[in-house]
Every structure is written in C-alpha cells, then in structure tokens.
Design goal:
The protein contains no helices and 15 strands. By secondary structure, it is an all-beta fold. β4 and β5 form a beta hairpin. It is globular and about 55 Å long. The N terminus and C terminus are likely disordered.
Length: about 200
C-alpha cells in the first residue's frame, strides 16, 4: 500500500493525498489560495487561483492539466444541476447568486447569468458569508450572514450584531428560449444572540 494512503473506505476506494498542481512546483511560486472550484463532466475537479488560471484534476487517471488562463467566475464552490444543465454558485464579484454553463468551451472565461436578484440589504449590513443549500427537487435555500456595527450605544465601545437571512427559492426551468430563474418564496432573519425576529418581503 502506498505511503500516501491514509485509510481504506471499502472495496477499491482509498483516502490518499493528491499530488500538487503543476503551478505549485514552478520556480518563484508564492503561496496562493483557491478562489473557486467545481466538478465538470462528472470526474474533473476544476480549481481557480487568482493570477494563475484554472487547472483540472482528472480523477480517472490522477493527472493535472490546465483548463485555461481564465478564472472561474464563482467564489468558493459551484454545483452542477444536470436537470437544468447549469452550474450555480456565488459570483467572485459582488457575491451574488449566478448560473453558468461550464461545459460550453474552455477557450475563454465562462459567462455568468444572473439567476436571482438578491435582497437589498441595508447599507450598514456588512456581508460575511453566503451559502446555497439544495433542498431537493427545484427547491433551494440561500443563507447569507451579515454583521452590523453600532457605535451609538454603550459609550465608545462598538456593539457588533451578527445575524443571518434565510431565503427559500424555487428554480423555474428554462422555457421559450429564456434562461432558468429563481423565484423568491419567503425570507426570514435570525439573530444569533436572540430568537427569530420576523420576515422580510
């Protein structure tokens, strides 16, 4: 058994360390982080690094290849939904929910289509994180974390309030040549140090 094997899951499946992508081994490489990632074609893992481009790891033969000099337009993970033929994720600019077709071409950066017009948070709401949760069928939930800093109470000590907004969405399939779109169902706001506050329209 190779040294990198960390544990057997059963059958022919093993946990093991992957070899580093080629750009990590290049002279002068500076430590960078993965900006976006997803799975394409069922067995290729794509990762994007700012200023370097997008690399693909083939899980069938265990090899890396460069998909392009462009970067994925998503921040964090994007998921593929075969029944609609699209990838869904949050954009690297503005952190808004978009769709894209990553299977069209690898010659240029994939295009984004806005699939859901986000809530209009107040200016003092500072966005922290966003998550897309698939609830099954065409139902989704977007969880967005915010914080608000209030300097008007407790003297000169700032009061930081953290909360989340949960929005239920239904994905309408494409028809009559139109792109799929998300339809709002309901939103709720939740304060972490308190109880449920109410609803957002």
């Amino acid at each position: 058994m190779p040294k990198e094997v960390m544990g057997k899951l059963g059958g022919d499946w093993y946990w093991h360390c992957l070899k580093a992508p080629p750009f990590v081994l290049e002279p002068g490489y500076n430590n960078t982080s993965i900006q976006g990632y997803t799975v394409v074609g069922g067995f290729n893992i794509w990762i994007s690094t700012r200023g370097i481009g997008t690399y693909s790891f083939d899980t069938d033969n265990g090899s890396w290849s460069k998909a392009g000099d462009w970067e994925l337009p998503f921040h964090g993970r994007a998921d593929f939904f075969p029944e609609h033929g699209i990838w869904l994720g949050f954009s690297s600019q503005g952190n808004l929910l978009y769709s894209s077709d990553l299977g069209v071409s690898m010659q240029c950066k994939p295009e984004l289509d806005m699939i859901w017009k986000d809530l209009s948070p107040l200016e003092e709401w500072i966005p922290l994180k966003s998550h897309l949760v698939h609830l099954g069928s065409d139902k989704f939930c977007v969880a967005r974390m915010f914080e608000r800093v209030d300097m008007t109470i407790r003297g000169s000590i700032p009061h930081v309030e953290r909360f989340a907004v949960f929005t239920g969405l239904v994905l309408q399939p494409s028809r009559d040549g139109k792109e799929p779109e998300m339809v709002n169902h309901i939103s709720r706001i939740y304060r972490f140090h308190d109880h449920l506050l109410g609803f957002l329209s």
